[in-house]
Amino acid sequence: MRLPKIQNLSHSLNDMVAFGGHVVHDDDVDWYESRGIAFLHRGEDAILIPTKSYLSSTLPSIDLKELVRKTAIRDPRYRLYLDLLLCRVVVAIGAGNRWERLQELLEKKLHPLAPRLLGLARWMSYRTGKPILELSEHDWDRVEEEVQGDDRKAFAEWNEILWGSGRNAAELFPLLEELYVPLVAQPVHFRATDGACLLAQMVSAARQGDGIQISQEESQRIEEWQIQGAPIDFDREARIGWLTLATELSSEDQFDLDGAPSRPSPLTIAKVASSSDLLVPGEQTDYVQTESNGPARVTATFLSVLPDKQIWPEKPLSNVPCWSALPASEEFRKVSVSRAKSPEVDSAFEFVAEHPVHGLLLQVFLAETLDREMGEESIILAPPLDRKVECIEGETEFLYRPSQLEGLASDDTAAGFLSLGEFDDIMTHLGNAAGLLPVPLPFPAPCPGVWSSALRLFISLELVVGQQDRWTLRGAVMDRLYGGALMRDIIRGRKEFREDLHHHLSALWHEKNPGRVLGREVAV
Predict the structure, then answer these.
(1) What is d(CA 121, CA 392) in angstroms, rounded to the nearest whole number?
(2) How far is CA 132 from CA 120, 238, 383, 482, in A?
């Protein structure tokens, strides 16, 4: 299985974390699936959709390059190759009697990798039949070439782009020390094949801080897993094997996890190895809903706009999955024009209403506006008094009171309102209640969360405007929604959904205001 070109990898990952999928035009699909990064959905387009475990382990990242680094080291053979480079230099430092330098490295910067490097030193000695300090440059070169196989050119390309220029292990060492070692908690990933039960038993034992007893017959299997990149250390005298890095194994099959008894390893299990996991592929993709007579839908909080963007896309995004498609901003400019002369506006609202993030946000604003128009004001999305903050949307307070509170005068507009929390926190709670998989913004952005970033996009589009004490839907938007199919589908058709929102908000209100006693009043 060949490694993808690094440029293709960057483009695919950028799409997956922003839009929830990448329309496939290359033949690298098997690599993404075998590394637990994504699965292929075949519909009108072939789309790579990221897995839950991949999203949770890699996001957020500092930037796209760090995301690509985190992804690349999920590949076991490439990870083995990098660790061998580090091990080679560490062994050379020891062979040169530079003990203080060696101690400093293993106790500080390389400390998370120390068990892995010790295991590799043991492995190299076994494969070459030599004491570790007697290994020649030729011995190291031969094993590294065996690990790279036919991907030697791809490994060199990855090194150049991800870590910087370097012709040998000594030149790459300081770059890996600074850029790779901080990412050591990233797991390597395997898709179950014949003999995977042994690895599954080791994963299960590692989660308890143990290794497993290895039979004579299983020794050969251990060696096969090691050359494939599995981070296994093996004490051949005690016949105990254990993991030295976090390892994911995905399989639809049930494994006999009692087949090999757990044993305390001769060395303490590394903390990163204890986060190893067994994954069921179907559970990693259950946020994708496929309807019998329609396209797939993703119930996850992908913003569908790269987070450094602070305005709604001016043009339609090309090559994105159907669930991430956002209408161009120009399609909303005729919101005040008669429906007969601007049918594209209705289509744009229908797209927004179906989007997991922007559709939920629209319904929250509809709940605020409709209740206020009915004389039962329940929601106030109040921006901070200090308008000079970096993200005014992120510091917006979510104020709420249940409708028809007993004992309130009809003209008492302030009584009963409580601040439930900041906008991102409460919207995340509502998203979870609606069955959305929370996905953080992949990279740093002006606003801290998906929901405050989405609110900023709504404001940039002038769907939402500020009115004295609150954010609310623009009047022309409400006028447009009151009529035709939009009235039927977006307002009346989602009434039960808004009732569920009120139910969850009311529960939060009662948590802060037990016994239905009016709490702190908030002036509006």
Answers:
(1) 54
(2) 10, 20, 64, 77
Place of tokens 């802060």: 512
pLDDT of amino acid 409: 46
How many Å apart are CA 365 and CA 379, to the nearest integer? 9
Contacts 24+ apart (CB under 8 A), 478-482: 478/369, 479/336, 480/335, 480/336, 480/339, 480/345, 480/346, 480/349, 481/349, 481/366
Under DSSP, is residue 374 helix (H, G, I), strand (E, B) or coil?
A: coil
Cβ–Cβ < 8 Å for 367, 385: no
Angle among Cα 219, 224, 230 to the nearest 5 degrees reads 105
Can you name the residues that pair with 191 across neighbouring β-strands? Answer: 250
Residue 296 DSSP one-character state: E
pTM for this structure? Answer: 0.92
Helix H or strand E encompassing 86: helix 76-95
Rounded Cα–Cα distance for residues 59 and 246 (Å): 17
> Which value, to the nearest 10 degrees, does the dihedral of the CA atoms of residues 360, 362, 364, 365 take?
170
3-state secondary structure 271-288: HHHHHCEEECHHHHCCCE
Q: What is the pLDDT of residues 143-200, one digit of tens each?
A: 999 999 999 999 999 999 999 877 789 999 999 999 999 999 999 999 998 889 999 9
Tokens, residue 125: 């000695």
Q: Is the pLDDT of residue 406 over 60?
A: no
Which has more pLDDT, 374 or 293?
A: 374
